[in-house]
Specification:
about 250 residues, mainly alpha
Length: about 250
Amino acid sequence: FTWLMTAAGAAVVFPAKELNRRTMDAMLGFAAGVMIAASCWSLLIPSIEMAEDWSIPAWIPATVGFLVGAAFLRLVDRLLPHLHPGMATEQAEGVKTGWQRTTLLVLAITLHNIPEGLAVGVAFGAAAAGLESATLAGAVALAIGIGIQNFPEGTAVSMPLRREGLSRAKCFQYGQLSGIVEPVAGVAGAALVLLARPILPYTLAFAAGAMIFVVIEELVPESQTGGHSHAATWGTILGFAVMMTLDVALG
């Protein structure tokens, strides 16, 4: 589902000649809001509740996992070559390579999808493990929320590539490919939980820390630099409200 929503977002390149910057900033803000709310309601709170059930200080798994998750994404961000839309090729981050500009642009969004896939996988793995603090409905709510915010991320890949001169078919192909990493990360997260149940509170917080890093490092700056900060801010608020509603209503 999450990959399909990425593909649907990438498909916007077919009917649309251009997407104005205000709309894109609002969509990126929406994605940020969803990820912030998901980190809190779907990951950190269950992590704390599980730690309490297991009679260990509740703050330890949440804090340690959160910090390690953020540090892990910082390491990936530092090593993975990627380029944010609107920047010159010389401004690419990560290890210096001779990769094409289009590849670097796709990898920038792929970086977002690693923690999202991991979060969904961990949530479903926790539900499959039969833990009281983790429910299938909560995992489904998280998957729906992540899927919804994947739509603008797919668009955020395909539309900039179109401006680079690529064909619409190529733009769609690269856009949907950026979401392939999510199912892979999801399977890895679920397998990790099922194989190492005692570290589940840490893995939930790890996914939360990774997502918050992406929000602060990538989504918020990208949404606020186009001159439409109010649209981006309200997008964030709406995204937060949608994800919070999904989690409380379904979880």
